[in-house]
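Known limitations

Files may contain more than one protein. Parsers should not assume a single record per file. Below, a two-record file is shown to illustrate correct handling: read the sequence, read the token line, then continue until end of file.
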Amino acid sequence: MSRIGPSGTIGRAQIRDMQIGNRTQIFIGRSVASTPGSVREDVLVWVRRRYHQVDGYQEMATILEERRVLLLRGLAGTGRFTTGLHLLDRVTSTGIFRVDGKKIVSDLGKGDFPKKTAGYVSELSRHDAISLSEETLDKLRDVMEEQSAFCVLISDNDTRDLAVLGGYAMAYEPPNSAALLRKHTAEGCWPTIRRTSNNG
């Protein structure tokens, strides 16, 4: 309890569903570690079966195919990472790997992307995302071309116009929640919905 009313804090937890007042929120997804390493095949199979295309998906795919680097900029928890995996899965069969976002903007080298023809994905911190420039993305593209690889970067929104990032970036909007729920239920992923009365 706080001076302004009931409150609660949740730390180090994965919330699958919750109710606040008379609203029920349903969270459907699969967590993927953000630490460097490979993305398991079973995770990619899950994404292939349940992914629902977001607005602008085809344009995202075109940027990735033509430039080998794509920056998805949007709100956390809206499926940016899943979209990145799905896009990379389209263009590579070698595997997908998570990489350290800090190295991408500060000390980029070919050694950070050892697998040729692979896909790479990285979630950037707010600080690293703000440090991105067209020149940094050009350098990353050069490394991707040398490795015949592809890279999707994930970042939060910032105040800069997307145009300053040289055509590599797209604004990411979450998928339609009703359509996403239909897709998941069609694949046999039935979420748990907890409802409680206002009387407890």
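...continuing to the second record:
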Amino acid sequence: MIRIDRLTKVFRRHVVLDALNLEIEAGDRIALVGANGAGKTTLIRCLLGEYVYDGEILVEGRSPREERCTVLAGMGFVPQMAPPLKMPVGELIRFAAGVSRTDVARVETVLLALGLAIGDVRHKPFVKLSGGQKQKILAAVALGRDCRFLILDEPTANLDPAARKVMFELLAARPDRPMLISSHRLEEVVGIVNRVIELDRGRVVLDERIASAGTMAFRHPCRVVLERTDEGLAATFQSWGFAQDAGELLHWRGAVTSGDRLRFLAALTRYGGLIASLQIDDVDSLPHVNGSDARYGEGSNAADNRP
């Protein structure tokens, strides 16, 4: 699907990509990892045809520099940094949907799933929104359209926990969609990919296939009993999509994805003295995720924990 041959990119005599060779097949869901300066974002920008480079890139036989419009028409892209667009959000979504021949309603549906109603921001300039709102809109534009390849550069940056959960669910729901996900942390994306590529100084230093795709989006039912109520802790639970049991102010229920469990526990750490019991159950597989089984053994036994 994508062939990269001796890709080299130099900025002011600094070699960022050094004769990089890589092939991406139709079924690949790749985690692109590496330290800052390893070349991840530069590689993505070359794939999008934004940079002049030495070497060759072919996306389904086409050069992203010479046939950029055609290549981009088949790509969905979520950037790490939102562009400073001044147009109103409603106009931006209509434009993006029109370019990709996508129904605007599909984009708005994904946006709502990520926790942002179009009616709340339709007439606001995109550049005036918060970082989280911008990221949700960009993700909705990319995931709401039909594309042959997804490129995501730190896609969960600025997203709240509930939106991160939905993001992973949406990605896991597309097992046949090839994608390239750039991330500083492998543990954040390992559950939805089947291949890991690590860059260092512009070269591939690791290229391995893994068999854990889909586990990041498994949901673990969670129940928490408090010693007493607390406004700050209540707000934390609500941000994770938890709700109180009917008539039980001290009982909270919800679910966390496999990839979010450590972050959830970390969020509760400051309230450890207020928690009487915390139970995280075995995975409750999502109905739209294939292959939900016992492969993911971690956390299979419910246990009471005090953060």
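Parsers that stop after the first record will miss the second one. For reference, the second record is described as follows. Residues 86 and 264 are 35 Å apart (CA to CA).
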